[in-house]
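Incident review: delayed structure delivery

Summary: a single-chain prediction request sat in the queue longer than the usual turnaround. Root cause was a stuck worker, restarted by the on-call engineer. No data loss occurred. The affected request and its eventual output are reproduced below so the record is complete for anyone auditing the incident later.

Affected input:
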Amino acid sequence: MIFDKLSHSTYMCKYHIVFIPKYRKKKLFKDIRPWLIERFKELASQHECRIETGVGGIQPDHVHMVISIPPKYSVASVVGFIKGKSAIMIARDFQGRQRNFAGYRFWARGYFVSTVGMDEAAIKNYVENQEKEDIRLDKLER
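Output delivered after worker restart:
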């Protein structure tokens, strides 16, 4: 398992996120897909996030990604940032708009999110047996 670190915390906060283009139109064709993958990675790194998987997760009418988000950021703020900034970049680079991006919407409102994490049974076992392990370690130290 790989844990990430901040100055005062160690974490593994991964989320499966799905969002769609407005009206679920098939706008994410092969020309824009590689470009979009790179933009998502750049935008995520600006919030100290890392896209774990998702390179193949861009379908013609929706985006799947697994992203690691530090606990100091909310999922909503990171997803909103990525969707908003990528919509502006798409308007600028693919639709020829040079300004007046206020109110421009490429992505539909909302998104799906679920947590991705450690095995629930393993965590329950760890929590239940932690007291026994602490007692065993105390005996070894004496």
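Verification: The first helix runs from residue 33 to 46.
Action items: add queue-age alerting; document worker restart procedure.
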